Amino acid sequence: MNAEDKNLLMNQVQTDVSMLSILSVISVFFIGALLPQFNSYDLSVKIPISFLIITTFAFLFSGLILSNGAQKIVSGDVRETERHLAYGYAIAEYLGVFLFVLSVPLAISIVTADLYLRIITFCAAVLGIGFYQFMGFSLLNDHFSKKNKLFSVIVILFGTALFLSQIYAFHFTVISVLFLLFLLLITILAPIKSFQ
What we know:
mainly alpha; single chain
């Protein structure tokens, strides 16, 4: 890696770590706004808050992994740099962005019973994540070039199933666990080149 490549990569990592810090703060804001609202928590409340907590840690640890990758960039260790970047971005994308975007409608649903606000939030989240994924901006495109459309559809279906199952109190916990397992699976598999 020449000096110019190192500088460009360092600038990219710095920008990405800054963005992850902002997203972490936004996630903490949601948690802070939700926790005082309830004296007792049933699963329809615990799960969206849990998703936001997981998201916060995903943003935090992906930022740390990317920051530590900067040392590998400086030392010129290409293999370790690629490893840090692959895991940092996978965690940020799948356990961070995907989980955060799809947990916002769930959080809104526990704060308000207003159907209009619930539907608008859900539509914005699903259309946004759909646009993000199907227009090729998501890392699914890079990590799972052959399966990215299928995985995109699965994420959107899970988002829809979560929203509806929370409202109708129908297998919400089961769908939530399956969604988390799916996100964990793609987070683990994404950096593995042989799987891509």
